[in-house]
Design brief:
The complex is a heterodimer.
Chain A lengths: L1 H4 L11 H5 L5 E5 L6 H15 L3 E5 L6 H5 L8 E2 L6 E5 L4 H12 L8 H10 L3 H17 L3 E5 L12 H27 L4 E2 L3 E2 H22 L5 E7 L3 H16 L6 E7 L9 H20 L4 E6 L8 H12 L10
Parallel strand pairs in A: 1-5, 1-8, 2-4, 2-5, 8-9, 9-10
Antiparallel strand pairs in A: 3-4, 6-7
Helix pairs in contact in A: 3-12, 5-6, 7-9, 8-9
Chain B lengths: L3 H18 L1 H14 L3 H25 L6 H54 L15 H7 L11 H39 L8 H13 L1
Helix pairs in contact in B: 1-4, 1-6, 2-4, 3-4
The chains are: A alpha/beta, B mainly alpha.
Chain lengths: 339, 218
């Protein structure tokens, strides 16, 4: 048994120590299929990082917020310290919700988006992915001003996360079109709209353009940072099952396309039945997991593959999370003599 | 120098044949032939062919590998597959643009070689009679028409001769096509008729025997 778990000489060490050691890292994404333990992993990683960094921010972009559950503490849209820590904060943002907020603000005639209310709304629904990207941009702007040393993203299940990375190109195209149009028809529009370029509900076209341009700049700057392997890494979480592996492989390929560094895989929910266990299901499942673990080892030779056991209790609360997080750094040693 | 009559006829025949077989087919045949020559495009075309072959091979292998049982192997194949697919798309896009230029050149040359030559012949020999028709065979207006535009009256001009050649070629080719179509449809009709015939429900030796007999009759 132990031969399968204890790494061979040529394998990379099966821990996330490399992330702790890489002091230059500023953005860490934790992603994977739904239900594989992303939130637990990101919380654990945050706890470990909090021991070696000055300040950590944990952000959940998953609409099904689990941070509050994991830490048994309510988090909101503003960063809040996690109880029992002095340098670990957490916040939950809703990628779909914040655009609604933005629009709501505009309709009430206050807030930064007031001037561009109706137009913003039209745009938000016209360009695919803009809602997520805008909420991301808002958050990133906040985060940048807050000077955390490392920011950990607990992302929404696969696919959702990566869409906004393409966003600058989409917005660039849209902006180019709009500005081409406005330069062609500008004089005519101004004739209709009046001298200051006011749109029907008291919005102004130049202001609108400026806002979008600013948004694009923020996003492309952040994108540039994400593509730098010294600043950003992506931790893939999966369970040793076919669909999860399939999604992970797809995600890794996609990340490679976006030039985002990824070199860690956390394999979660491993079963280690005790020697002579009578549980047929456990033994059968262990066999299947072993097969997929073998496949992972073969396929991802150049990754840190962390193997995490399935625990008997839910990993919730500070103490259990801390216990769990230990295993990210010191490999779990399964009970001797098991399958 | 063969007789001008034959030259004009052959030219019209070639024009007709090329039009029926389609410029696209001829262009692609020429493209393939062109790539057999030691030209720079032939190398990239050969590379592309090899790439395509490899792509198909990898694809076949990938489809033959169970993703559930041998995930690592399958995923590696898939990576290879995706990479090859990208490369293939790229090289196809590149060769497409070269082929477009090639096509336009070939089209131009073909036009020059056929319609250009025809026009040249018609210009050059417009005053020359192809042959004379016996006097009093046709009324004057018909003679004038046959010699149109500039051949001496009482002879057949090169223009009239080309028109006549084209008409004959069209007639013969239409007749051929119709004959072929007739034979083919006749064949399928008898076959469908056979299929439409009710099949006897009882399966016995007798029915089988009948069937084989029918087949022999065919």
């Amino acid at each position: 048994m132990s031969a399968a778990v204890v790494s061979a000489d040529d394998e990379l060490e099966p821990t996330l120590q490399s992330i702790l050691d890489q002091k230059s890292l500023r953005w860490i994404f934790v992603g994977g299929k739904g239900g594989v333990g992303k939130t637990t992993t990101s919380c654990s990683l945050a706890i470990q990082l909090a021991r070696v960094r000055r300040s950590i921010l944990l952000i959940s972009t998953d609409p099904a917020h689990n941070l509050s559950d994991a830490f048994s503490q309510k988090f909101g849209k503003e960063a809040r310290l996690v109880e029992g820590y002095t340098n670990l904060s957490a916040m939950e943002i809703d990628p779909n919700g914040s655009i609604q907020d933005l629009i709501g603000q505009a309709e009430e005639g206050e807030g930064p988006a007031a001037a561009a209310g109706g137009m913003m709304q039209d745009l938000a629904y016209a360009i695919p992915g803009i809602d997520e990207a805008m909420s991301f941009a808002e958050v990133l702007k906040q985060v940048k001003s807050l000077s955390y040393e490392t920011i950990i993203f607990d992302t929404a299940p696969t696919g959702h996360t990566l869409r906004f990375l393409q966003f600058p190109t989409v917005l660039e195209k849209a902006l180019a079109k709009v500005s081409a149009l406005s330069s062609q028809f500008g004089p005519m529009l101004n004739g209709i709209l009046g001298a200051n370029g006011g749109l029907p509900n008291g919005q102004s076209l130049p202001e609108m353009m400026e806002k979008l341009e600013g948004l694009r700049e923020t996003i492309s700057e952040v994108n540039g940072q994400f593509k730098d392997e010294n600043l950003t890494t992506f931790v893939c979480v999966c369970i040793p099952e076919f669909l999860s592996l399939y999604e992970t492989e797809r995600m890794i390929q996609e990340l490679a396309n976006y030039h985002i560094d990824t070199h860690c895989i956390v394999v979660n929910q491993l079963l280690f039945p005790k020697a002579g266990s009578e549980c047929d299901q456990c033994n059968a499942r262990r066999k299947m997991q072993k097969k997929y673990l073998g496949q992972i080892a073969e396929l991802y030779e150049d990754f840190n593959v962390v193997k995490m056991p399935l625990l008997v209790e839910e990993v919730r609360g500070k103490d259990r999370l801390e216990m769990f997080s230990e295993m990210l750094i010191k490999p779990y040693v399964p009970p001797a003599g098991g399958l | 120098m063969p007789s001008l009559l034959i030259v004009v006829f052959v030219l019209q025949l070639v024009i007709h044949l090329l039009n029926t077989f389609g410029a696209g087919v001829i262009n692609s045949v020429l493209w393939n032939l062109y790539n057999l020559l030691p030209v720079p495009t032939s190398k990239s075309a050969a590379e592309q062919k090899a790439l395509k072959r490899e792509f198909v091979k990898v694809r076949k292998e990938m489809n033959g590998t169970s993703s559930q049982d041998e995930f690592a192997k399958w995923a590696k194949l898939r990576r290879q597959h995706d990479k090859l697919f990208e490369q293939l798309k790229e090289s196809e896009a590149k060769s497409d643009s070269t082929k477009k230029t090639f096509d336009s050149v070939v089209n131009g040359l073909r036009w020059l070689g056929l319609n250009g030559v025809r026009m040249l012949l018609q210009m050059w020999f417009q005053k020359q009679p192809m042959f004379w028709i016996p006097k009093g065979w046709a009324p004057y207006w018909a003679e004038w028409l046959l010699s149109f535009p500039r051949a001496p009256v009482g002879s057949v001009s090169v223009q009239s001769w080309s028109v006549a050649c084209m008409a004959v070629i069209l007639l013969v080719s239409d007749a051929l096509v119709a004959a072929v179509a007739l034979v083919v449809t006749a064949g399928t009709k008898t076959r469908t008729k056979k299929m439409e015939e009710p099949v006897k429900a009882e399966s016995g030796k007798k029915a089988k025997g009948e069937q084989t007999q029918e087949k022999k009759e065919l």
